[in-house]
Design a protein that fits this description.
The protein has two domains: 221 residues, 3-Layer(aba) Sandwich (Aspartate Aminotransferase, domain 2), CATH 3.40.640.10; 125 residues, Alpha-Beta Complex (Aspartate Aminotransferase, domain 1), CATH 3.90.1150. The chain is built from twelve helices and 14 strands. A seven-stranded mixed beta sheet has the order 1-9-8-5-4-2-3, with helices on both faces. It is globular, with a radius of gyration of 21 Å. It starts with 12 loop residues before the first helix and ends with a helix. The relative contact order is 0.18. Bound molecules: pyridoxal-5'-phosphate. Pyridoxal-5'-phosphate (PLP) binds next to helix 3 and helix 4.
Length: 371
């Protein structure tokens, strides 16, 4: 089976993890945490990095650092991984859903303004599958309505919008380091920002909001700490970060060259202002292909090629549609672009480890299924 993703751990990961064990610095203090934070913030072209235990908590910390909570609304794309939506709910705010655009597969800037109310506090964009969001119109809307901009860059390490790194484009950026991410720590996350106050708040909240004297707490904090062991892996990953990003891009170039003329397959977008990092090489299966997405996934699996479906919109989630909680998003309304993605989209094996030969095998298998 050609897997969808496997991490590359052939740098100094083992050496640094071994160091943690030998020195007994295995918990959430230790030298690797600030080193990883510093390197990752630098990679994102931001001043501050606050590491935490996953990408979901990074978003939660970002929201709370900006003072967003009960009674507020946050605009998000309906087409995203559920963690984006859940983190808003955890903060006490209510997610407000926006459809995507075909051009970039991201949140459609054109439909944001009609969703803004006096309660709206932020626009939370998601750089889906590694393609940056068209930020200028969104930053303009945010400025006009005095809103924060938060980036969920969980899938876009190293991605760029007009030469600027994803994560550095809004007020706060959030990353995941889950094992299928371009840079991984197994589990892990990071909040990046140029704002000292937001970074300080995120740092405080991730560690139970300990203050002075210790065990006196003025705020509701969390245990969202990363461990020194995870950060050790992260630091080793940062030593080859550009290579890890480039491997995904090289995979995509190879896939694009082999798939671009296959009738019924739509290859992923890359706008001229974008550096798409192709976290997962994603395609749409059109009617002309002669098989549905689900049939295609099943047949590929039988032939040893693992794939994953695209996300299903938040407006389609049973928990939100049927649940009775004032923080849940309003799921009425139409989201035709998101629905089309869910119906047609899948991603192919996308590891940095993938060989050209494996890519050729995947594409030959797809072509052999064509009706
Ligand atoms: C867009 C997006 N946001 C948030 C997350 C949550 O990250 P984690 O799984 O590290 O909590 C993920 C992925 O896993 C994601 O793809």
């Amino acid at each position: 089976m050609i897997p969808v993703c496997e991490p590359i751990l052939d740098g100094k990961e083992l050496e640094y993890v071994t160091d943690c064990v030998k020195t007994t610095w295995i918990s959430s203090n230790g030298k690797y945490i600030p080193l990883f934070e510093e390197k990752f913030a630098e990679f994102c072209q931001t001043k501050y990095g606050v590491a935490c235990n996953n990408g979901t908590t990074a978003i939660h910390l970002a929201l709370e650092s900006l003072g967003i909570g009960k009674g507020d609304e946050v605009i998000i794309p309906t087409f995203t991984m559920i963690a984006t939506c859940n983190a808003v709910i955890y903060s006490g705010a209510k997610p407000v859903l926006v459809d995507s655009e075909m051009e970039t597969w991201n949140m459609d800037p054109e439909v944001i303004e009609e969703k803004i109310t006096p309660k709206t506090k932020a626009i939370l964009v998601v750089h889906t599958y590694g393609h940056p969001v068209d930020m200028d119109p969104i930053l303009e809307i945010a400025k006009k309505h005095n809103l924060f901009v938060i980036e969920d860059a969980a899938e876009a390490h190293g991605g760029e919008y007009k030469g600027k790194r994803c994560g550095s484009l809004g007020d706060v950026g959030c990353f995941s380091f889950y094992s299928n991410k371009i840079i991984t720590t197994g589990e892990g996350g990071m909040v990046v920002t140029n704002n000292e106050e937001y970074a300080g708040k995120a740092r405080l909240l991730r560690n139970h909001a300990f203050s002075k004297p210790r065990f006196i707490h003025h705020e509701l904090g969390y245990n969202y700490r990363i461990t020194n062991i995870q950060a050790a892996i992260g630091l080793a990953q940062m030593e080859q970060a550009e290579y890890l990003v480039n491997r995904r891009i090289e995979n995509a170039k190879k896939y694009n060259s082999l798939l671009k003329d296959v009738e019924g397959v739509t290859i992923p977008p890359e706008k001229d202002w974008a550096k798409n990092v192709y976290w997962m090489y994603s395609i749409l299966i059109e009617d002309e292909f002669g098989l549905s997405k689900d049939e295609m996934m099943e047949k590929l699996k039988e032939k040893g090629v693992d794939t994953r479906s695209f996300f299903y919109g938040m407006h389609q989630q049973p928990i939100f549609k049927n649940g009775n909680d004032e923080r849940f998003p309003d799921c009425t309304g139409l989201y035709p672009v998101a629905d089309e993605f869910s119906q047609k989209g899948l991603y192919l094996p996308s590891s940095g480890k993938l060989t050209n030969k494996e890519i050729e095998t995947v594409v030959a298998t797809i072509k052999s299924l064509k009706g």
